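REVIEWER CHECKLIST
Item 1: Sequence provided? yes
Item 2: Single chain? yes
Item 3: Sequence as submitted:
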Amino acid sequence: MPRPLLKRFLLVVAVLALGLWHLWPPQKTITLGLDLKGGTSYTLELDLTRLESWRHKQALEKAIEILRKRVDRFGLSEPIIQPSGDNRIIVQIPGLSEADKASARSQLERVAYLELRLVHPQNAAELARMESVHAGPPPGYELCTLTAKRAGRAEVEEKVLVKIKPELTGKHLSRAAAMNGPGGYEVAFELNDAGAEIFRRVTKANIGNRLAIILDKKLISAPVIQSEIGARGQITGDFDYREATDLANSLENPLETPLKVVEERGVDPSLGADSVRSGIRAGIVGLAAVVVFMGIYYLRAGLIANLALCVNIVLLLSTLAIFKFTLTLPGVAGIILTVGIAVDANVLIFERIREELRKGKAFAAAVDAGFNRAFGTIIDANMTTLITALVLAWLGTGPIQGFGYTLSAGVCTSVFAALVVSRLIMDAWLRWGQPQKLRMLSMVLDTKINFLGFKWPAYLLSGAIILGGAFSAWKKGNDIYGVDFTGGDSLTLRFTEKQDPGALRRTLEGHGFHETFIQYQREAKGGGEVLVVRVPFDQGDRAQKALAEAFPQAGFNLAKLDKVGGTVGHELQWKAIQGLAVASVCILIYITARFEFAYAVGAVFSLLHDAAICLAFLFFTDRQLSLPVIGALLTIAGYSLNDTVVVFDRIREEFRLRGAAMRFVDLINLSVNATLSRTLLTSLTTLIAAGSLYLFGGGVINDFAFILVIGVLTGTYSSVFIASPILLLWHPSKLAPQTELKPSAKPGYEREAPSR
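Item 4: Structure as written out by the authors:
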């Protein structure tokens, strides 16, 4: 075996073995989210007694923001956090073990109010005086107890006099992290500029004295100040790793008001077991359809693509397991897009090989040239998608962040599968199979369509759809938002006979409730099971009546009715918008560096165009914005970029080859025609996967699948009729003489040109 082939083989085997090792058994290695598997729900109550009434709402919103940051530090858990009433917060977290539940409860309740106070300079002498005369602490000080615990030793208590007024508080802390110190785990912290200046002054003036570290009114450490300290310090207190990590997390996100867990429940999947089953079934059908299509269209080359696709899926799932990603519906969207990207890369390679064969190259030379020519296109197309994914993972929270991580992993595994796995299989076939020809179906002629001649009708059509969507959204007002955004009435129903969630959901849909949340919940400590139904505000009584009439055998009885806020809070909305804005800027910079600024403008404009078209059709069909819809829109953003950059890459290539002999308008048309087969094939395979979800996925994910279908069609349309013409608008008179475009291929089977 040649050395390059052997190296590639060993690399693929090693990566695949590592992935399978982390993936098995899958039910223990991949964490499913609340929408797919359920988890644990906590209801927390804020103590607002110390705050003025006008600050209650502000304190509730701040607590939600802090809790989200704390829970996100558990890992990529994608929690649900929403307000309930005026002083309660519901937090749902997936995949918690019993030990994790205790830690989560502690993290949620801990206020983490940090104070650094000076210890009395003559602590021992003053304590002796107080004992001898039975006096209280001196003015300005209070008596605290420090408990020290050592392995194998009894606990030791020490009385310490500390100042009542702190020198520093947690508001001066900017960062905290657990680390392994000389005496065990400790928490290292950093102060902001103002805190560092105060700390430097205080420690410099008190070298040799002790500094008390007080957390939530409890003395946990009182080290001696050895020297002047600036922006950094450590908190020691006989912590184990979990305690140190939890403390660091809490210190970075301190609460203003105390919180108490008043209710803990186990919860079923928010999508419903029926929807999960139908979604999995639809995904399998879609994947199988893509595999069959590739096998029929590309024949033996299609089998190579399918093998690479299977390896890609294994690597992606193992990546989810290795990095403890939580798989939710937006994550499934990332996987669907990954399948499209993986097939797209192989289509690019095979179409390039087809072109090289038309030029009369030998099969082996055509394969080598095909992979080499497709390499840059694949990298550029996937880099723009990766930029979007990484920015969303960096700036996003909850499901937005989860989508970003899943898509990032999918892009990396897809590129590896296409450029390494596919090349390995193809090279092995060339060496041991020694093929003399490559038969592939041809769906599209070598066309000479004047696509840019349709640019103004396309602009008018897109403008009309977008304006119509904007008018529809304006007319509907807040009705465009689902309960994920607006919140609503949350009914807690007790029952005597459990009913199928799918049947309950269909009943509510029949009564006009198009956006509902249905979930069975169980009391944490052996209590009964209840049904939680969330519907729009002031619709709770009507929903309860509809269910009671449709299911009299269930014996539904209202336990309580709460007003809950949306799971998509202002922070989540702002993070999503901020992420897309930053991603757009990064894409502008990358494409400008790789191409030129006009290409970057075209790509970003196409991305925004596709999102606007999808939203317009969402509003036209009386659907509402929800978390699944947001996930689908993010998926379309990644798909749109991938498709557009492939067309741009061919325009750049043709410009380098023919720029001096062709008008820019003809060069763009030539490039769009040259990539038309690849554009349609990729759209078709992605549409197969999305269409399967739409047809077989069930009602809960219908909106999600609908946006995917519209987005795939829109992305294909915009790459040809929107993004490319923008280049012409930027360079309307670039280059001179016109060159006629001539078709050369016929539909049917392609045969390799004779070897030379």
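Item 5: Key structural point noted by reviewer: Residues 398-433 form the longest helix (36 residues).
Item 6: Recommendation: ____
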